[in-house]
Amino acid sequence: MTDTSKKPRMPKGQGKDRLIKHSKILFLENGYESTSPQDIYKSSGVGQGSFYHHFSSKADLMKTVLDEICETESHSLHRILKKDSSAKDKLNEFLDQPRKGKNGCKFGRFIYESSVVNSDIAIPIRNYFQYLEESLDYLIGECQKSCSVTQCLSSKQISQTIIAQIQGGYILSRVKESDIFLTNSITSIKKLIFNDEIVNDRD
Questions:
Q1: What distance in Å separates the CA atoms of residue 30 and residue 49, rounded to the nearest whole number?
Q2: In angstroms, how far is CA 60 from the centroid of its own chain?
Q3: DSSP code of 85?
Q4: First to last CA, the chain
Q5: Beta bridge partners of 149
Q6: What contacts 137, CB < 8 A, 6 or more positions away?
Q7: Which residues pair with 194 in a beta bridge?
Q8: CB of 172 closer than 8 Å to CB of 181
Q9: Quick check: 59 and 121 in contact, CB under 8 A?
Q10: How many CA atoms does the CB half-sphere of 130 hold within 13 Å?
């Protein structure tokens, strides 16, 4: 008699994909430290043996998840930079990207967890923010040449301020449970840096 109670084997490669997909959701919802391997097994339907076949540890899985998230975000930024448009239009497009403040930053939020920031897990995050800062520095420098962005601060100072303002908007939106705080942060950035916005406010 055939035993039909056996769980069917997943197609080759699907186990790893499911682990990455479901752990990404869990990490973003609950944080890295609060997500246990058991949570990942249960959510993904992938057993412990298969987990350790694909990843040496939860930290190894987390780094893979962050690599994927940061690669996606870097590609999105690269796409904007390569467009045949003005530096100001590119900067506006970056600032106007859809963001859900209440959900928090997709990877910046993990920097608050000591087990992430004090390990190699944080390397993809650091690399992304470095790329983001350099890209914004370049765009702002080009905007300053055309006098469309204030020259009261250096391009580096403005790029760092933009990143800090966006990250702060995410924090306030999560604390206050409203996306409006991130929206307001980005609106404030535009009013502070774009010369036409500054002139309009004075008028």
A1: 24
A2: 19
A3: S
A4: 86
A5: 194
A6: 155, 156, 159
A7: 149
A8: yes
A9: yes
A10: 6
Answer yes or no: are the C-beta atoms of 88 and 190 closer than 8 Å: no
Question: 61 is written with which tokens?
Answer: 């899985």
Q: The tokens 């994927």 sit on which residue?
A: 68
Q: In Å, how far are 148, 155, 182 from 143, measured between CA atoms?
A: 5, 9, 24
Q: What is the pTM of this model?
A: 0.86
Output DSSP code: residue 7: P
Residue with structure tokens 């339907």?
45
Tokens of 66: 């962050």
| Residue 131, CA atoms < 13 Å, CB-side half-sphere | 16
| 74-101 residue pLDDT tens | 999 999 999 999 999 999 999 999 999 9
Task: Name the residue among 110, 137, 103, 140 with its Cα closest to residue 124.
Answer: 110
The amino acid at residue 149 is V
User: Model confidence over 149-169: pLDDT tens digits?
Assistant: 999 999 999 999 999 999 999
Q: How confident is the model at residue 199 (pLDDT cuts 50, 70, 90)?
A: very low
- Distance (Å, whole) CA 157 – CA 178: 28
Integer-rounded Cα radius of gyration of the chain: 21
Helices and strands, number each (H, E), in the chain? 10, 0
Would the pLDDT of 5 be above 80? Answer: no
- Phi, psi (rounded to 5 degrees) for 95: -65, -30
At 185, list the tokens. Answer: 């942060």
